[in-house]
Structure formats: structure tokens, C-alpha cells
Amino acid sequence: MPKVQLEITRRTFMKSGVAAGVAGTLGTRGMKGAPAFAAGIDEGAWYRQGSIETTYNVCDICPWHCGLVVRSVDGVVRKIDGNPDDPKSRGMLCPRGQGGVSFMYDPDRLQAPMVRTGERGEGRFREVEWDFALDLIAQKMNEIKDRSGQESVAVFGHTAGDSWWVEHLAQAWGTPNAAKPSSSLCISPRDEASTLTFGFPVGGHEPLDWEQLECLTLIGSHIGEDARNTVMQDFANIHGRAGKIIVVDPRLSSAATKADHWLPIKPGTDTALLLAWLHVLITEELYDAPYVDRWTTGFDQLAAHVAEMTPEWAAEITDLSAEQIRDTIRTMAAHAPRAVIMPGRHVTWYGNDTQRMRAVYLVNALLGAYGREGGMYFNRTPYIGDVPHPPYAVAGSAGGCAAEPSEDEEDGPGELAPGPTGKVRADGAQERFLQGPTAMQELIEPMISGDPYRIEGLICYGVNLLQSIPNPERTKEALRNLELFVAIDVLPMEHIEWADIVLPEATYLERYDDLFTMAHKTPYIHLREPAVEPLHDTKPGWWIAKELGARIGLDGFFRWDDIEE
Fold first, then answer.
1. b or e along 165-204 (b: 16 or more beta carbons within 10 Å of the residue's beta carbon)?
2. What digits encode the pLDDT tens for the residues 150-200?
3. pTM for the complete prediction?
4. Do 147 and 216 fall within a single domain?
5. Last residue of some domain: 104, 128, 143?
6. CA separation (Å) from 158 to 105, 418, 493, 506, 525?
7. Is 19 a domain residue?
């Protein structure tokens, strides 16, 4: 059939189809008893059941904290959308974010405080009142403090509310043994390497100038599989405008299928590839010499270090070809300074991760990417003042060394200071903890061995404990040895069965939280507000921390009545 005749036939077909559709619609409107959907109206839709109330929130399903628009009818959340004014969500959400409603209304939610009645691990509990549960926790914590010191209580945290636990209550209480998997298993090497190289950490967002970026390199960053909403949008945009994409990954990931260059590297050999890239940049004089001269120190030492680390040398280690190694770094250099290796998240891999990430940043530095359009920007977090409180018994967050409270503090921790509590122990053992990316795992060992001193109590806030630390059987052994294990969560995950006391938290759709200060290309401040009242007998994390703090002598650290104040 000739082409023009086919086109005429298709047009005729489309016209007849449209005409039939219009006729069908008009015909059903006049029919008695015609279903509402035939006229495009769903009388049973949720948005027709009452007045729609709109509130604004911040997603808590992952650390990205995308802005939300939440719509409720008669006290029931019906719809979650990305906030179009939010710099991260930009009106979109990933599938996890869309699951927020079903998360809140999950029939298996923890509904009331519970106290263990069987053996640890059996999952046998009885419901109790909040006052009873909090009084019991306070009693156990004070017994541990009097017997062994505050540092014998550890605190694990995750999700947005963990600042009340890891970064506030733990320091006020006087324990340096506070950690979170987002640090231990994810970003510690990345931010430690950045601090060593540039003087400050990367921060929570990937600070790439995506709009101007011309060449993106990913090393083990599974965009599309780890569902980071903003980064998936940015990746789709650079791919859509035909920017160059280089993916280093042992497997053909979803990002690798979109790449101009896929380097199926031998696992564990990334540092060799990075060093060879540095070698090519320097020996072929592809680096940004004026930028390096002005903004860096130590170039001669770096050049000497990588002088023998040729692509041929790296090819023997990485199972890549020397040609692949040269071609990819030349591609980056051709687009510099609009070429960046994205730092990525979940970079705790092989044990040499801090130095591997330093090599990533050094490649970016030689490309002249930092502080340049199309490269990486230096993000800043908005500053907001804190509610006044006494000096912390432990200085710093998630790993500071202990310090004594000032003598003239009127309502500070006072009684928490005697003996070894709230101070660096005489044997220096306290300094051992939280010095590396395996902090959570390291804190399991003293629960078992008592070396260098025994950790007797654990408060676990929003952490899927048996999935967050390698060797879950070892973790269970540690839990058996504890005098006190408190689990604060929304759903009954496996580690809940091992708790002495379980406290049910309200979800992020049911509570206010502290303000979110977001480091971004344009820094901004987020407010989370509840869409509905907390379901069942659940409470917000800030309320639990404040009420427990009052019972363990930390009233001065919570000088406010409610979160709105």
C-alpha cells in the first residue's frame, strides 16, 4: 500500500474513532440510570466526600526529606503530592514517598506502649500507660548511671526525629555512645574525606550544578534504584539533553543502561581506577592548571604519588582496559569544569573508603569543578537559633569527647557529673567510640565483652537494628546481655521482639517537628505540620524525649512546653 494512502487511512480511522467516542458519550448522558462514570463523574471519589484540608509536610520515608502537600477529608489523609514550591521534590515524589498514607494507616502499627512479659526475642508484651513506661525507663537509666556511669547507656537513632535523641538527649545525659546508620553505613567516609580535603562535609544533598553540568560520572551510585527523588529527576534531565554519562559499576545497573561509558569494574578496585585517572590528568596536562595553582596545595606530592599509577597498571587490578580508563578521563577533561564525579551516598564498602572518597574529590579538584558553574557548589545551611539550654555533658554530636558541665550552671545536669560519668574516663576508653564509619557495630562489642567498659542500656529510635549492623546473630547476643533495651518505632520490625519496653511513635503525617534547615543551591527552611491527630495511643518523638528528659533530671534541656513554641 503506498505511504500516502496509508496516512489517509489512518486519519480516516482516527476521525471515525473520535466521532464514535463523542456519540457514545452523548448517548449515555441521556439514558435513564446511566452510571456516573460514563459522564466522567465519580460521585464516590474521596474529594467529593467533604471539605478538603491542605497541610504541608516533609517526607520521612528516606533522608531526602522532600516537601509534601497533604490533603485530608474529615480527619483522614487521602492524598500526598510533591510540593511544587519545594526545591527538592519540585512537585514530584518517588514511589516510597507515595506510600506515606499506607504507612500511616498500616494495620500492623504499634499502637500503645508495651512492656516485655516473656524472654527477649519471644515478642510477648502487655500494654501499659505512657507514665508507667517512661517512669520505668527513667528508673533503669538512673540505676545504670549510678552503677556504671552515663556512658554505659548507648543511643541509636535514624529518621528526622533522631536529633532529639542522638544529638540532644544523649549529649545532655552524658554519653558519647550515640550513633546512627546513616553515618555508620552511609555517609561517614564521604563527609570525613570531604572535611580532610576541603575543610567541610558534603552535606545531605548532592551539591551538583545539574542545570549546567555537561559530564556526570557515577561510581557505585544507583540512581533509579535507591529512589532519591531529586537526583532521579536531575539524572533524567542530563540524559534527556544528551549530556555525557560515565558509570563505574560491576553490574549493569539502571544508570549504566543510560551511560555513554559503562566500566564494569572488578569490585573493590575503585581506588586504583581513580589513581590512574589522576595520573592521566597530570601526565597529559589535562587538569585545570590555573585553578590548581590558585586554590590547592600539595599538587607536587600528588603528582609524585601517582607517577607510576598508569592506566596499564590499573587495568591489571580493575579488569578494565587501559583504553577505557584513558577514554573516560579524557571525556571528563574535555567538559571540565562542567564535569563532576558525584559523591553519592552509601559509600561504606571496602574499609579504605575515606581514602577512596578523597581520590574522588581530588579528581574533581583537578577538573576545576568546585565553586564553578556546571561543577559543584558550596552549599550552606540556613542558621536558626536554638532554644537556650545548659552546656551539654558531652561536647559535639555523634562522636564528641566528653566534657564537664560548668560549675555555675544553675539547672544543668549537676548530679550527672560524679565519678567517671560525663567525663573522659581515666583509662581513655571513652575516646575509643564513634571514631569511624563502623560506630554502631563497634558499640555492639562492649555490650558483649565489656571491653573497654560495658554498655548496659540501649535506646533505639527508628533504627531497623537487625538489618543495620552486619552479623545479626551477634547483635542478638548483645541484646541478651543488656539491662535495658528500649525500642521507639512505628512498625513491629524484628528487633522490637527483643525490647524490654516498646514506645509507639506518631508518623510524620501526625506531628510537628523541629524546623528543617536545608542546605541547597538556594538554602531554605522547611516546616512540618500534622495533617491529622496521632492515631491510637502514639506520641511524637520530641514529646517522648521531653517527657523522659524530665524524669532523668534533664528539665533544663527542654525549656519549652510544646513543639510549636
1. bbbbbbbbbbbbbbbbbbbbbbbbbbbbbbeebeeebbbb
2. 999 999 988 777 788 888 999 999 999 988 877 767 888 888 999 999 888
3. 0.81
4. no
5. 104
6. 21, 31, 14, 15, 20
7. no
